Amino acid sequence: MIFNSLTFLLFFAIVLVLHNLPFSWTIKKINLMVASYIFYAAWNPPLVALLWLATIVDWHVAQAIVRAQDAARKKFYLFISLAVNLGLLGYFKYGGFLLESFTAALHAAGIEYHAAAPDIVLPIGISFYTFVTLSYTIDVYRGEIKPSRSFLDFALLVTFFPHLVAGPILRAVDFLPQCETPRRANRQQIAWGLVLLIVGLFEKMVLADGVFGPIADQVYDGAQLAGGVDAWIGTFAFAGQIYCDFNGYSLAAIGVALCLGFVFPDNFRFPYAAIWFSDFWRRWHISLSSWLRDYLYIPLGGNRRGEGRTYANLMLTMLIGGLWHGASWMFVLWGGLHGFYLVVERALRAAFESRKPKWQSVTQLPVAVMSASVITFLAVCVTWVFFRARSLSDAFHLVKVMVSGGKSQMEWHSPDSLNILGLTAALLVTHWLLRNSSLEEAASRFPFWGRALILVFMLLCIAFAPGDNRAFIYFQF
Amino acid sequence: MPLSTSNSDFQRRSEERMHHTVNDRLPIGPWRRVWIVVVLLTLVFLAAWESVWRSRGFKPELTDDADLWAWTRQRATQNGTKAIVFIGSSRGQLDLNLQTVEQETGIVPVQLAINGASPWPVLEDLAADPQFRGTVICDVEERHLFPQAPDHEDDAVLTPRYYVRHFHGQNVFNCFEFGLKKTIEQSAVFRVPHLTPLSFMQKLARKQRPRPFYLEMNADRSRPADYRIVDIESHRKFRILRMQTLFKKDAPPTVAKLRQGIGQMRPWIEALQRRGGEVLFVRFPMSGQYREVQEIQYPKRRYWDVFAREIGAPAIYFSDVPVLKAFDCPDGSHLDKRDTARFTKALLSTLRPLARSTMLNSGILEPKEKNYD
User: Fold this and answer.
1) What φ, ψ does residue A221 adopt, rounded to 5°?
2) Positions in chain B short of pLDDT 70
């Protein structure tokens, strides 16, 4: 089930009514859990078994870790959790990719080998829920949290439908305490939760699918080779599409949870206003970047083992982060580019910090800061080429024409180009204006009628949007 | 052993991580009033929009998409031996009158033609469906006589392979969603794509006024065309120009390529025939300059006649049958809705003697023994 479907609206209305009936808290949690399984089963009912497997294994492993008397046993139990979760992820998500890469490597070595194509269905959201269960077991192993005493609460942590298929990636520490006491949203929470749902659907259905997506598809999936203008317009369009798609989903998820009385952490903070790349990753897909930081980068040694090791850790973390997005070398390249940016930023920062204070003050000038933000956005756009392109050769061609130009199908001044340029500029300005603020603060500044008119506009745009019901891009990850 | 989540460390860490969430920033204000105004204004606007266009003769319309196709495709399987299925491209949807087919045969036909698409993926899918044993009438135009497009085009949402995959991915939730969507589309004019405020404003900018579209979209996937409301001269010119542009890009394929395509299709036709089903190929009518341009790019003798001889199933070309040749296509390639009933009758009467089963008569009889090779 996707948020931008009529079935979901009906489903959510039923869940909301049930949640506000005078049942006991346990019954309400059971309702939410059953609803979450129905939500997931809407894609492929048998794959619910994988959710059960992940839930049951990690529940028991966490209990066993606490009961274990010695470190070796604790480690053994942790290994079971890692093996099951990463095994599921590896088989379902990377099985075909590994086989393809293995076959390609054999071919490169001159060995003729043809493997049967594996017929593996990718369970939706598997990367998200395995990260939820993994973080729980690792936190218990590290002694940072105690295991949940309620299986129901833990099962709800794993399956709660607003975050189940595309995050934000919840941590036990964020969610389990909320399950202890009855949650029922107050009027303000429901009102704002519905606003977030509408803003999210507007971003997804109107901006991502209606405006940005078709132009990005035209350039990236077109039969003809793109020129310089096509490449930039198509990439700006994709930058807008992926942001509006994923941020739209995250806002809707946070809003839906809020209507039920649950609070989710933020997943985006106006990332296209980032000043350099470490700032970008503090603003883009925050629940993933903080997960990678806490469970990969820091355990690898973080920045505590010298500059060389820090760079290696950054690269490795971003390469794995790239691979997390999908079983393709294109995603690895995308992650690698971001890792490279982070390494360069870190090296330059170290070099500039040792310079004279006068030079440092120049970098603080508003024009320098804004330029840095624009450069960051353009560099991030280059990485989106690898994220979106169909093949490596397509990606290199697009990057090449972005630099050197080339005959384009589109003109800078065509209506489509102007639409994309205008909306991209609007997106950047909005992010810049709100970079140290939030949607809530912005809404607070509007008078009553201003809020109402914006919402009416968004609702009407949603009502008139074509009913394509395109899935959210991040579902495939 | 205490297994509690409510220890103070856990709570503290939780509070640390969650201290800047949406819940701490909730905008205060008269939200109740905001929502009342939002609901009222939205409903008033939609009601006004709806009544304005209804008063000007616009009707609700279904979207011809993969959901509707999948829902229709399901009927082909359900009908089993009693199925008459039309596949192909736009001519199937525009030229045929499905009510006439039902009157003539006693069977509710299934329209699976896809606008602008090659029929082969659909034929392959029907051939692979063990429950389907019906009659397939395939509208095929010359450019679709050749092997299928390269694989990378499969991802495009409008390709017939996407439609087929979409059908096989259906479950009870998709059907429910489609039911809701269909209900709204059948009852609300504001869901008609060319009546959105955006397209209205675009038309105003071009100093045009929205007029009812010349194609109707019916729930059975037929799309009768009313050419009386079209500037037919410019419409025809546009179609010819589009076809010439398309033909300029690609040189006509070789006969070897045609035979490669025939080799690809024959196993599907044979699989259907073994199960008691059959396939009949038809080149639907075309007229005027459109036909001349087609004939230059794809001479009938060079392509169609070879195809008809070697495909292993009946294949008729409209101009070989006087009763079909008599129809005129206002845009060069499709019939007007006023001609569809007559054309459908003529087509059925042409196909009946060629068909293996008597399904095209009325009711189902035993298959006739016939060898197409």
Assistant:
1) -110, 0
2) 1-19, 148-158, 358, 361-373
Read off φ and ψ for residue B254, nearest 5 degrees.
-80, 165
| Interchain contact B201–A (C-beta under 8 A) | no
Type of residue at A270: F
- Tokens matching residue B67: 């959901």
pLDDT tens digits for range A436-477: 888 999 999 999 899 999 999 999 999 988 766 555 565 555
pTM of the model: 0.83
Contact state of A177 with B11 under an 8 Å Cβ cutoff? yes
Looking at chain A, which residue has its C-alpha nearest residue B193? A466
| CB pair distance less than 8 Å for A265 and B21 | yes
- What residues have CB less than 8 Å from B216, skipping those under 6 apart? B59, B61, B223, B224, B226, B337
HSE toward the beta carbon, residue B36, CA cutoff 13 A? 5
Name B179's Cβ contacts closer than 8 Å, sequence gap at least 6: none
Q: Is B314 helix (H, G, I), strand (E, B) or coil?
A: coil
Would you call B345 an interface residue with chain A, using a CB distance cutoff of 8 Å?
Answer: no
A-chain residues near B181 (CB < 8 A): 6, 467, 469
| Nearest chain A Cα distance for residue B365, angstroms | 40
A459/B32 Cβ within 8 A: no
Query: SS3 for B85?
Result: strand
CB nearest to A263's CB, from B2, B23, B155:
B23
What does residue A260 show for φ and ψ, rounded to 5 degrees?
-95, 0
Question: Rounded to a whole number, what is the distance in Å from the CA of B176 to chain A's nearest CA?
Answer: 7
pLDDT (tens place) for every residue of chain A, 477 residues total:
888 889 999 999 999 999 999 999 999 999 999 999 999 998 888 889 989 999 999 999 999 999 988 889 999 999 999 999 999 888 888 777 777 777 878 777 777 777 666 667 778 888 899 999 999 999 999 988 888 889 999 999 999 999 988 879 999 988 999 998 898 899 899 999 999 999 999 999 999 988 899 899 888 887 677 788 889 999 999 999 999 999 999 999 999 999 999 999 999 999 999 999 999 999 999 999 999 999 999 999 888 888 889 999 999 999 999 988 888 889 999 999 999 999 999 988 888 777 666 666 767 778 888 899 999 999 999 999 999 998 888 899 899 888 887 777 777 878 888 889 999 999 999 999 998 888 999 999 999 899 999 999 999 999 988 766 555 565 555
Q: CA–CA separation, A193 vs A20, rounded Å?
A: 15
Q: Are B156 and B162 in contact (CB under 8 A)?
A: yes
- The yes-or-no answer on residue A397 being catalytic is no
Nearest to B35 among A63, A149, A191 (CB): A191
Cα B170–Cα B176–Cα B182 angle in degrees, nearest 5: 105
Q: State the Rg of chain B over Cα.
A: 26
* Other beta carbons less than 10 A from residue A220's beta carbon: 22
The structure tokens listed for B335 are 């019939």
Q: Phi first, then psi: give them for residue B84, nearest 5 degrees.
A: -115, 120
CA-based nearest distance B33→chain A, Å = 8
Tell me, what's the pLDDT at A468?
62
CA distance to A98, B100, B269, B306, per residue, from B319 (Å): 55, 22, 24, 16
